Automatic annotation (TrEMBL):
<dbReference type="InterPro" id="IPR007862">
    <property type="entry name" value="Adenylate_kinase_lid-dom"/>
</dbReference>
<feature type="binding site">
    <location>
        <position position="150"/>
    </location>
    <ligand>
        <name>Zn(2+)</name>
    </ligand>
</feature>
<comment type="function">
    <text>Catalyzes the reversible transfer of the terminal phosphate group between ATP and AMP. Plays an important role in cellular energy homeostasis and in adenine nucleotide metabolism.</text>
</comment>
<dbReference type="InterPro" id="IPR006259">
    <property type="entry name" value="Adenyl_kin_sub"/>
</dbReference>
<dbReference type="Pfam" id="PF05191">
    <property type="entry name" value="ADK_lid"/>
</dbReference>
<feature type="domain" description="Adenylate kinase active site lid">
    <location>
        <begin position="127"/>
        <end position="163"/>
    </location>
</feature>
<dbReference type="GO" id="GO:0004017">
    <property type="term" value="F:AMP kinase activity"/>
</dbReference>
<feature type="binding site">
    <location>
        <position position="172"/>
    </location>
    <ligand>
        <name>AMP</name>
    </ligand>
</feature>
<keyword id="KW-0418">Kinase</keyword>
<feature type="binding site">
    <location>
        <position position="133"/>
    </location>
    <ligand>
        <name>Zn(2+)</name>
    </ligand>
</feature>
<keyword id="KW-0067">ATP-binding</keyword>
<dbReference type="InterPro" id="IPR000850">
    <property type="entry name" value="Adenylat/UMP-CMP_kin"/>
</dbReference>
<keyword id="KW-0808">Transferase</keyword>
<keyword id="KW-0479">Metal-binding</keyword>
<comment type="similarity">
    <text>Belongs to the adenylate kinase family.</text>
</comment>
<dbReference type="GO" id="GO:0005737">
    <property type="term" value="C:cytoplasm"/>
</dbReference>
<feature type="binding site">
    <location>
        <position position="153"/>
    </location>
    <ligand>
        <name>Zn(2+)</name>
    </ligand>
</feature>
Length: 214
């Protein structure tokens, strides 16, 4: 079983990816990690990617998709592969489809986590982290017992990360909407899109995922 998991920033994709990986014995394929591995091992694609990076250029979709395919073919001992947040746009999806077709590899499900933008912004901008133990909170959905103080460790102070502000998150959501949202129609036409309400608790969302995959 090969799946694609995508959704806007803050929808809880990372949480669901971890659960999917464990529950279904899937290879969790992060394009960034796969790219670094190819460069480290000095494969042909890795060398081409490194050359582009050394020139300050973006690694082409052809190279990235090729690396994804290579990683998928090495998924021995796994029940399939989960592409996390990839492809990011329609040209990448088209390149991926073409290379998968040549290798008789299929995508079985495209899981699209859906959420209201206002809720996502609160999830992102409301995050706070302890400066001692790193425990995370959310001032809207999971606040500490005492405002600004960590529940888990003495003298732990909660603070937002530098990039946890509404403008940054809104910019990211706009990029997602313009580049990645069109993939929903692309995969819907192929009969692969599985929309999932991402506004429930992690357990509730995962129950919906399991109903689709089981």
């Amino acid at each position: 079983m090969n799946i694609i998991l995508f959704g806007p920033p803050g929808v809880g994709k990372g949480t669901q990816a971890a659960r999917l990986k464990e529950a279904y014995n899937l290879l969790h394929l992060s394009t960034g990690e796969a790219l670094r591995e190819e460069v480290k091992n000095q494969t042909e694609l890795g060398k081409r990617a490194k050359e582009a990076m050394n020139k300050g250029e973006l690694v082409s979709d052809e190279i990235v998709v090729g690396i994804v395919i290579n990683t998928m073919e090495k998924a021995s001992g796994k029940n399939g592969v989960m592409l996390d947040g990839f492809p990011r746009n329609i040209p990448q999806a088209q390149t991926l489809d073409a290379l998968l077709s040549k290798r008789n590899i299929t995508i079985d499900h495209v899981l699209s986590l859906e959420s209201d933008q206002e809720i996502i912004l609160k999830r992102l901008a409301g995050r706070r982290f302890c400066n001692k133990c790193g425990k995370d909170y959310n001032i809207y959905f999971n606040p500490p017992k005492v405002e600004g103080e960590c529940d888990a460790c003495e003298d732990g102070i909660l603070a937002a990360r530098a990039d946890d502000n509404e403008k940054v998150h809104l910019d990211r959501l706009n990029v997602y909407a313009s580049q990645t949202e069109p993939l929903k129609e692309y995969y819907a036409k192929k009969g692969l899109l599985r929309p999932i309400d991402g506004m429930g608790s992690p357990d509730e969302v995962f129950e919906e995922v399991k109903k689709i995959l089981n």
